[in-house]
Structures are given as C-alpha cells and as structure tokens.
TrEMBL record:
Database matches in SUPFAM superfamilies: 4Fe-4S ferredoxins, Nqo1 FMN-binding domain-like, Nqo1 middle domain-like, Nqo1C-terminal domain-like
A Pfam family per the record: Complex1_51K
Enzyme class of the recorded protein, top EC level: oxidoreductase
UniProt entry tagged with the keyword Transport: no
Ranges where the NADH-ubiquinone oxidoreductase 51kDa subunit iron-sulphur binding domain occurs: 325-369
Species: Streptomyces jeddahensis
Family stated for the protein in its record: Belongs to the complex I 51 kDa subunit family.
Protein name in the entry: NADH-quinone oxidoreductase subunit 1
UniProt cofactor(s): [4Fe-4S] cluster; FMN
PANTHER family reported for this sequence: NADH DEHYDROGENASE [UBIQUINONE] FLAVOPROTEIN 1, MITOCHONDRIAL, NADH-UBIQUINONE OXIDOREDUCTASE FLAVOPROTEIN 1 NDUFV1
EC assignment: 1.6.5.11
Annotated GO biological process: cellular respiration
Compositional bias (Gly residues): 524-536
Length: 536
C-alpha cells in the first residue's frame, strides 16, 4: 500500500529551473542565499504589477485558476472605494494527501513566496500579511523566513506579518475557511458567499492566493514578462509545479515547462509504461484514461480538453493490475470523512455517494449506478464550500473514465483486479495529514449497530443522525451498522440514548475477516525594506 508522502519528497526539474533555482545548492534558501540565487527585487506600482500578471497569463495555482490580474484590480478598487487598507493572504494550506508542491516551496524557497506577497502588499498599500499553513515544517520555515526579514506582528510595524496555523484538513485550505480562522474563528467555511476582494480578513478587502502563485509572480517581476514567456506555451507561459505519486517508483515534486508531454513526466517518476488511467488535479480532479494520457501535455487547456484538470497540480497514475473503482472508493471514503459536518450536501451527500460506489463494486447492478449518479448530481453547487463540488466531479469522472471496469462490476461479478492502495491517503492522527486534523474528520473506530430483535421502526434515529442511518421503504433502518466519523460521534450517542426501543448500540469496529471472492477486498473506509534585506 502506498505510504503517505513526506512533506518534502524528491524534487526534479525539466529544463531550466525557475522556482526551484538553488535547490541543487542547499536544502533551504535562507534570505542571504535567496538573494545570491535570485538577486534583489524592486517594488512595482499596482497597475504595473497587474499588467505584468496579464502579460504572463498568471492564474491561481491552487486549483481554481482565477486570473491574478483581475483579483489584484478587484481588491485595489474595493480598497479605494471603501477607504480601507487591504490585506494580503498567502494560502499555503496544502492538506490533500497527494499534493506537496506548495509545501516544498515553503520549506525550501520561502523567500520567493514572500517576495511575491510583499510586492502585492507594497502595490496595494497593505499593512497586514497573513501566511496560512497546516504543517509543522511549513510553520517553522515561514516563521524563520519572517524573522530573517525582520517582519513581525507587533503593533506599529510598517507591515504586520504573521503565520496562521490551522488543522490539516481538506476544508481548511478553502479561502473562506482560512480568512475565518485568521479572524479568530474556526477554520471552516462560513457558508455565506462573500468575495474576499470585497470583505475578507477583518472585513477588509483581501487578496488571497496560493503560495506557488506568489512565487511565480516574484520570478516574473525579476526576469520580466518577455523572458518569462520564452519558457512554456505561448498562451500558458512559464513552468508548473507538479506532485507525481500513485503507481510510480519515485514519488516527486517536479518543476516542468508547460507544453511538455504528460507521458514524459510520468516516465521521469517511473510510472507504468501504459497506465490504466491517470488522476489529474488531485482528489478534486478528474481521471484521464490510458488513451488520453498519450495525447496530453502539461497545460490547463490540454488537460481540460481531454477531460482532465490541472487543479492543484497532483498527477497520480495507476497500473493495469489495479481496480480503478476500488482505488477511487478509498478516496471517496476519505473525501466523505473530510466533511466539516455543517451542511447537508457534504455530511449527508458525500457519505451517500461513497456508499453508492461501494454498492456498485459489491454487485449492486444498474440501480446502484443510477443511485450514485443521482447523489453526485444532488450535491453540486449546494455546499457551504467547494468540497462537495470537487468530490462530485471526482466521482463523475471515475464512472466516466473506466467504462469497461464499471460494466464488469455493474453487469457481472467484478473486474477481478485487486485494490492495492496506490493513491496516497494520510492515516488519521498523523502529522500533516488531511484526516488527522482533529476537527471532526477522523474515524472513531466505532460503529452504530441496529439490534433487529428490538427495532420497532420508530425512525427517530434517522432524524438524529441521518448521515449514518436512512429508513428503507418499510420504515425500518436500511443498514444494520455504520462506521461513525468524529463529527457524527455526539449525534450517534444521542440516537442510542433516545431510541425508544433500545435497539441501537455503539460498538468497536473489528478488522474485516479475509474472504475469498473475485471482487476487490477494500480497506475500511510593509515597506520596501521587506523586498530587500529586511533590516536596513
């Protein structure tokens, strides 16, 4: 089974390095080494910086791909209109088990990220900078970088800069969750749709972008738009940071120019010569089948055209010996457990979708497939954040990309392939993992069980804990037992206590006994000084 990725895996580069310059010299570029490798950086006026971002077609590298120049202008206009100084936020919350590119940059080149953030802060006249992280290593590296520049959070400082540490969970990386936590609230999406450019940290207009985006801006500001555009594709110039894992010999982070064939990058990491499929964009991304992989190049447009996604830059191939639906079920269970537990499409819909995929694998037939399609359609555009949408896109892609395997499970007795666990998932409670944030997502090791000799079909349990128990057509629970995630533990106990027939109980889960079957065996589910030496 594929182990969780380390914070800083092997780093490779195709062509000339830009973001990874100096990585061959030292493990971490402190300020002195950073200036030796990259040189000094002069501040730029706001419109000049926006024009640069337009000339290099800079889009957010965290998954959404929003044009950076539009975001910069929107924040500037809002700040001028309201007469409020804006805030700059660097999102370094990389909590997906298959993503490490931002973590690598923060650990090894933190000053390149700060260069971009400080350029923006100077151009906007911001006096507050927040860097969001979720790992011990990224917190330590960024704290050290701020200290090396003489940046603090003290009152009266020209630029107040601080690191915001949040639990490692999928939802904490969502922009509204990071802003909410920076204001002292819980690191969860608030459920209301407010643009950060209008009202973000402290109610001020806030420019929030991904760590790699700021690093790319810093590179372009140093070398100029013309030289930046000499690398990569004409309409998507520059390089991209990718995390390659899954069925590969050497999991790695690689900096690669856009336009390089995807099969070459996979070869570099030791992927199967003819992968059965490649998950692009991470666990909110989409699958490419084997034939599409041959035609794909590293670019947002190419992957989109073939049905994939650049997303958060995670690329995960699987080999021909692996059951793709079984591998996807592991991810679907993890995505369901990552729910914040505060809106129905997430804490009800995602577990239901995972159960639907499990039903397909266990021979549920066409009815199970139709039920899964209905659930994934029902959760879209209804959540408090983008987690339900991204999870639904992943499931939709799974059943679209692997039609032969789907038919084998739906119409026959399964594909006969094993589930090897090649898609990395962080174990609950481990440092830096998505499932170990301690805020509701981790499994409890317990299950809610129904005693059929006592159950009288009152239905109270389905009202109290609907994410675990639903009623069947006969009015009785449709499941005999259900695993209890952390966010449902209190409601599950309440259901046990309030059952009029005393038919519910909490039990400790036991590891499944080995079984012989041709179905896959599934595991359980500032000022300008900050741009220079910083000490002046």
């Amino acid at each position: 089974m594929n182990a969780a990725l380390p914070d800083v895996p092997e780093v490779r580069v195709v062509g000339l390095p830009q973001l990874t310059s100096g990585f061959d010299l030292v493990e971490r570029l402190d300020l002195a080494m950073h200036l030796k490798v990259h040189g000094p950086l002069e501040p730029m006026a706001g419109e000049q910086l926006a024009a640069l971002a337009e000339q290099i077609s800079l889009k957010g590298r965290g998954g959404a791909g929003f044009p950076f120049a539009k975001k910069l202008r929107a924040v500037a206009e809002s700040a001028i209109r309201r007469g409020i100084r804006p805030v700059v936020v660097v999102n370094g919350s990389e909590d997906e088990p298959a993503c490490r590119k931002d973590t690598v940059l923060i650990n090894r080149a933190p000053h390149l990220i700060l260069d971009g953030a400080l350029l923006v802060a100077e151009a906007l006249g911001a006096r507050t900078l927040v860097v969001g992280v979720t790992r011990d290593s990224t917190e330590a590296s960024m704290h050290a970088a701020l200290t090396e520049r003489g940046l603090t959070n003290r009152r009266g400082a020209p630029l107040r800069a601080r690191v915001q540490r949040n639990p490692a969970r999928m939802v904490t990386g969502e922009s509204s969750a990071l802003i909410r936590s920076a204001d002292g609230g819980p690191p969860l999406p608030p459920g209301r749709k407010v643009r950060a450019s209008d009202s973000g940290v402290g109610g001020a207009p806030t420019l929030l972008s991904n760590a790699e985006t700021f690093a790319q801006l810093a590179v372009a500001a140093r070398i100029g738009a013309d030289r930046y555009r000499h690398t990569g594709l004409h309409d998507e110039p520059g390089t991209v940071m990718l995390t390659i894992s899954g069925a590969v010999a050497r999991p790695m982070v690689v900096e690669v120019p856009t336009g390089v064939p995807l099969r070459y990058v996979l070869q570099l990491a030791g992927a199967p010569p003819v992968p059965q499929g490649v998950l692009t964009g991470g666990y909110h991304g989409k699958w490419l089948d084997g034939s599409a992989v041959h035609d794909a190049v590293v670019s947002r447009a190419s992957l989109d055209a073939l049905g994939g996604a650049l997303g958060a830059g995670a690329i995960l191939p699987i080999g021909p010996e692996t059951c793709p639906l079984g591998e996807s079920l592991r991810v679907a269970n993890w995505l369901a457990a990552e729910s914040a537990g505060q809106c129905g499409p997430c804490y009800l819909g995602l577990p239901a979708a995972a159960r639907g995929l499990a039903d397909i694998l266990n021979g549920g037939g066409p009815a199970a497939l139709e039920a899964l399609r209905q659930v994934t359609q029902a959760v879209k555009r209804r959540g408090a954040c983008k987690h339900p949408d991204g999870s639904a896109a992943f499931l939709d892609s799974t059943i679209s990309a692997f039609t032969d395997d789907l038919a084998a499970h739906v119409l026959g007795s399964g594909c006969g392939r094993r589930v090897a666990g090649v898609l990395p998932l962080q174990e609950a409670g481990t440092a830096g993992g998505g499932a170990g944030g301690g805020a509701g997502d981790a499994p409890t090791g317990q299950r809610l069980a129904v005693d059929w000799t006592l159950c009288q079909g009152h239905g109270l349990c389905a009202d109290i804990v609907p994410e675990l128990i639903q009623l069947g057509p006969d009015g009785f629970p449709s499941v005999a037992e259900a695993s209890v995630p952390q966010y449902s533990a209190a409601r599950a106990m309440r259901a046990v206590r309030r059952c009029p027939a005393l038919a519910l109980r909490i039990e400790q889960e036991q590891p499944p006994a080995p079984r012989r079957s041709n179905l896959p065996v599934l595991p359980p589910g500032g000022g300008r000084r900050a741009l220079g030496s910083g000490r002046g």
